[in-house]
Amino acid sequence: MSQAQFDSLIFARWMITVETDGEILENHAIALKDGRIAAILPAAEARQLVADEVIELDRHVLMPGLINLHGHSAMTLLRGLADDKALMDWLNNHIWPAEGRHVRDEFVFDGSLIAMAEMLRGGTTTINDMYFYHGAVARAGLSSGMRTFVGCSILEFPTNYGVNADDYIAKGMAERREFLGEERITFTLAPHAPYTVSDDTFRKVVTLAEQEDMLIHCHIHETADEVAGSIEQHHQRPLARLQQLGMLSPRLVAAHMVHLNDEEIELAARHGVSIAHNPTSNMKLASGIAPVQKLLTAGVNVGVGTDGAASNNKLDMLSETRMSALLAKVGTLDPTAVPAATAIRMATLNGAKALGIDDQVGSIKVGKQADLIAVDLAAIETAPTFDPVSHIVYAAGREQVTHTWVAGECLLKDRVLTRLNLADLLAKGEDWRGRILAKGE
Ligand SMILES: [Zn+2]
Fold first, then answer.
1. Is the pTM of this model over 0.90?
2. In angstroms, what is the span from residue 359 Cα to ligand 1's centroid?
3. C-alpha–C-alpha distance, residues 279 and 321, integer Å
């Protein structure tokens, strides 16, 4: 038995705690015990402590792991299959047919693992996913070690996975029961969008979420067409309809929320709705620019997501953090909108808050789970360093992420994945490419 006081001691040149915007601790260390942050102290004092493992990050920033608040992991297998299309053309004529031909349990497991390998290499420690074959997503989460929120997609129309909304709900809830004891796996209810889900189903989802204490994850106000379609079909905008159905609450993680008027921003704030902002997906599908600075000013909790690899096409949360800062500026013609420290908080603590785990992760604080990443700033691309917060948002690339820990377990060590085998995953990707091409698109 080890006599060490701590499991690990991590010394870092800089630490971005996210406890206070822009706070940077220089030459500090953190001590880990049983997967949690047990102490944060100046390096000189930490040298007196005893730990099983000592990690020296003398050129690095240590910061909370990035939280990808909206994604469809398995869609890595459809990456680059259809680009430069409008959302409904992209969905109806490309993505949904391809999913119909290929999406089964094995596809989802392999695609999700490839996504998780990419995300862990880029410093993402938590994914809020939404897809089908939830058992496969959860098993991929357990294999990779990522904190995984498994969104049970609910639609009115049939896919390979289900025949109607009740069937999707029943299957999702049955799969959830198998993973209830897993600390890193959480199931959520994911009605796809206002234009694919009926009033009746939304009401059922709200009731079930309250009964089972589950989050709700839904695409909302993504495009101007969605809003116009709702006015035509329901004689009201999607958010007003969802409010009447009881959907607006702190349980809701609303993905996109691009097209919002001032009343809707106030509505989201009043009901404690969290938003997953997906800047690159919104740019690529030409959905528009979400009013992020207005939302933040109104007190709405806004996190950051990548969306799926078919509409981004990178699951790169550092890049997404940068885009969040840049798009807010060009959208308002105000260079002070979403400053760097705010963008980092959105990609970490705000994501944790949206998922109801901000007491556990999202910042560097004693007692929290050690979901952490290290970014090496000694690269020429980030030389010299005046302000690590600036570099993380505006200059560093995901290639500079050297370490990723989830609950104190090092899943990426000196750029090497500790649980997943990259060569195996590359072979699986190649195998799927062959299968998808063989069946046409
Ligand atoms: Zn999405």
1. yes
2. 26
3. 9
Could you give phi then psi for residue 332, rounded to 5 degrees? -110, -5
pLDDT tens-digit map of 47-90: 999 999 999 999 999 999 999 999 999 999 999 988 988 878 88
- Comparing CA positions, the residue from 341, 246, 252 lying closest to residue 19 is 341
Burial class (CB in 10 A: 0-12, 13-18, 19+), 286: exposed
CA of 307 to the centre of ligand 1 (A): 5
**Residue 367 alpha carbon to ligand 1 centre in Å:** 33
Per the DSSP assignment, residues forming a β-bridge with 185 are 148
Mapping DSSP to helix (H, G, I), strand (E, B) and coil, where does residue 145 land?
Answer: coil
Q: Which residue has the higher pLDDT, 97 or 152?
A: 152
Local structure of residue 133 (DSSP, 8 states): -
Centre of ligand 1 from the C-alpha of residue 288, in Å: 15
* pLDDT, tens digit (0-9, with 9 covering 90-100), for 61-71: 999 999 999 99
Mean pLDDT on 6-17: 98
Q: Calculate Rg over the CA atoms of the chain.
A: 21
Give residue 194 CA to ligand 1 midpoint distance, Å.
13
Whether the bond into 64 is cis, omega within 30 of 0? no
Between the CA of 23 and the centroid of ligand 1 the distance, in Å, is 32
User: Is the peptide bond prior to 313 cis by the omega test (within 30 degrees of 0)?
Assistant: yes
Contacts of 272 (CB under 8 A, 6+ apart): 249, 250, 301
Element (H, E) at 279: helix 279-284
Tracing tokens 């603590």 back to the chain, one arrives at 349
Q: Which two tokens stand for residue 430?
A: 């190649």
| Per-residue tokens: 420 | 């997943």
Query: 72 alpha carbon to ligand 1 midpoint, in Å?
Result: 6
Cα distances (Å, whole numbers) of residue 178 to 62, 64, 128, 146: 35, 29, 19, 18
403's torsion region: left (phi>0), alpha (psi -120 to 50) or beta?
beta
